[in-house]
Amino acid sequence: MNTNYILSKKTKQVFLSISVIGSLLIALSFLLENPDNKQVWMNVLLNNLYFLFLSLFGALFIALHKIAHSGWHVSLKRIPEALSTFLPYSAALMFLLIFGMHDLYHWSHHDLHDPIIKGKSAYLNLPFFFIRMAVYFAGWIGLSYLLRKNSISQDLSDNYKFHKQGRILAALFMAFFAISSSTMTWDWIMSVDPHWYSTLFGWYVFIGLFVSGIAAFILIIALLKSQGYIDFVNKEHLHDLGKYLFGFSIFWMYLWFFQYMLIWYSHIPEETVYFAQRLNGFPILFFAILVLNFVFPFLALMTRNSKRNIKWLAMVAAVVLIGQWLNIYLMLSPGILGETAQIGLIEIGSACLYLGGFLFVVFNALSKKPLLCKNDPFLEESFHYET
Amino acid sequence: MYVSPIREPLIKGNKTYSQITKDIAAPIEGKPGKAWYMGLTISLSAMFFGLAMMGYTVWEGIGTWGLNRTIGWGWGITNFVWWVGIGHAGTFISAILLLFRQKWRTSINRSAEAMTIFAVMCAGLFPLIHMGRPLLAFFVFPYPNTRGLWVNFNSPLLWDVFAISTYLLVSLLFWYMGLIPDIGTMRDRVTSKAKKYIYGLLSFGWTGSVKHWQRHEKLSLILAGLAAPLVLSVHSIVSSDFATAIIPGWHTTIFPPYFVAGAIFSGFAMVLTLLIVTRKVLNLENYITLSHIESMNKIIIATGSIVGIAYMTELFISWYSGVEYEQYAFLNRATGPYWWAYAIMMTCNVISPQLLWFRKLRRNLVFTFILSIFINIGMWFERFVIIVTSLHRDYLPSSWSMYSPTIVEVGIFIGTLGLFFSCFLLFIRVFPVIAIAEIKTVIKSSGEKETKNETL
């Protein structure tokens, strides 16, 4: 069984060409569409967040399953571990915002004469914003690095002490993530509409993160399998991941619905303005997001066989990934660009540029370590189980 | 199915299949002890006291309660939400934990489901009595009256009626369906003719044939599928009773998932309260092991922390919103005249469960028992804080008011506690506390193996 992934030249070229196409589209956009600074920064923030979420999912998946004493996932764990290696790049890209704050965040301007924003200045101010950013990334990168290191150390030793240490790291990560996952969404997403607030917002974004992460996980498995690797990943694993995708798509819809319904029902203008702007300005996108993220995966993954068929599952995952990207787009762009914003070449181009880079980092990380871990006390369970 | 040797066994004492049946059926076949009679006497007296207070309320009217024009919901709705919350553990264990392949649930699902049903019954009483004239309950059913008027479908209070009655129905079916093979076992074991006849009727002619098992399994799957979304929907809709309003402290979008987490939190606390005593009294320590207690404690710390984060989120966003009324509502919660209720809620729900990060405490029975009582109290106060402190201040200071319950309201609450414990005490005498058929499915993979050549 070949467990060492080799990042072939051809694959590298594919990733590179995705990025090159993205760059060309961006260049074309500058020629044809003449995007302003705001739009450029919106794209940076959008893709920063999107790929940060996929990467954070990697660390979260490992930590969550470790503290839950899960056995089924162990043979797959190198893939989410590889996803988490993008975190340092995310951090670097995120700190680029230093140059784009005024274009993205209305609250970052001085002399606003806005008493509501002024009331929030103890939280929404530039130094604190970047201090928080540094704390989040320090925690995420530090703990996910240690988790990956721990898992690799276990490969070399049959001492269970690594297993125990890993659980402690996982618990630390979960505690840190539980708080930072909410606060990061207030900082980076909710504050683009600085007057608006919703207590559910953090959890709503978090579920989107989880769903898109699962979808990315499935697609990477499909890609590796198509190149003839990881034949130890069987239909039971796919079935479980399919159930995750199915279940958490429903959960995403649940949170979406209750956030919307409670605001709609109470009909307080300060709150409804958020949805009014999105529903009136982007009616097609607004409903397309619901179809792509809930209706489609709900219907497509309902039967048992649909979750065990890798091609079908990968197709659904791809649709959900697009849906979640659009979801973040609709959270950001009306607040930054207003109701006239449109998805143009620059949006597609920047997404491609980021995607190529992200894939390269992740697959490069996969090629560095064996795809199948060793010595994990739950590893055997991952081969012999039925869903 | 392979099980890693480092996993703790779920059934201790090297049991065989027949021993399992014997051990679990023993409490039903033997005579109840003095403690059981005493418990039942106390519970029944509490229940009758509550019934008397309910009768008094219906006879005299809601004026016998401590409610006033500003605070229209007090203990009644607090108790209602508290009981519904407790009724969440059962279905969570049997549906959600089933989906996540948590085998340890087989030791606790039966009693947790029974508890769920009793708790939902207690919960349902409160809206009924709160109507003042229980006959008015007829008008919550979606049925047009002679003038062609329908119920108000826009009201979350009506959604509650549907959500909770569906939940009760599905939980009851789920519980009973799981009981059928065990009732069949009991029918075959009991010696008295009358008992044999009754268990025979209740078992619906269960023979244990392959066909019966096939249908049983299929129905289990369907009901689990139905029950899983119900775990979320019930308390989400209960939370809508508050969150759809525009009262500061009630209108917050995090309510649905946070209520669900809180419900599972309090449900598991009640399961622990009951099972720590039950396992000891009925000699079931080999089936409900310390490892089970630890797993439940882990759920408690997870859901307790989620609830804690929700409290903090509410506090933060109320400040962040810049809305003066929101800010005041939360400041008043913590520092106003009901600060003590808020302090109890915070201590019991957020701070004390954090001790469960220590493995030693997670496996300590006395500590767990005390903590579970703490959480029961804390979660009751959470609802009290949400309802009473949010209501007692109004937009007009002339409407400000205070609330304290009368003996009638307290009596009704005690009555439901009595009803709950009476039902549970009767349940453990009549039906197997642990699902015999289900726990047998895990003995091979997760039973303790002391000798290699065990006979089956």
Automatic annotation (TrEMBL), chain A:
Superkingdom assignment: Bacteria
Transmembrane residue ranges: 14-32, 44-65, 86-107, 127-147, 168-189, 201-224, 244-262, 282-300, 312-332, 344-366
Keywords, comma-separated and alphabetical: Membrane, Transmembrane, Transmembrane helix
Protein name per Swiss-Prot or TrEMBL: Quinol:cytochrome C oxidoreductase
Organism: Ancylomarina euxinus
Source lineage: Bacteria, Pseudomonadati, Bacteroidota, Bacteroidia, Marinilabiliales
From TrEMBL, chain B:
A GO cellular-component term linked to this record: plasma membrane
Domain of life of the source: Bacteria
Keywords in alphabetical order: Cell membrane, Membrane, Transmembrane, Transmembrane helix
Topology term for the membrane: Multi-pass membrane protein
Pfam families: NrfD
Localization per Swiss-Prot or TrEMBL: Cell membrane
This protein's record includes keyword Transmembrane: yes
Keyword Membrane: yes
Residues passing through the membrane, by range: 35-59, 79-100, 112-141, 161-179, 219-238, 258-278, 299-319, 339-358, 365-391, 411-437
Entry's family note: Belongs to the NrfD family.
Protein name per the record: Hydrogenase
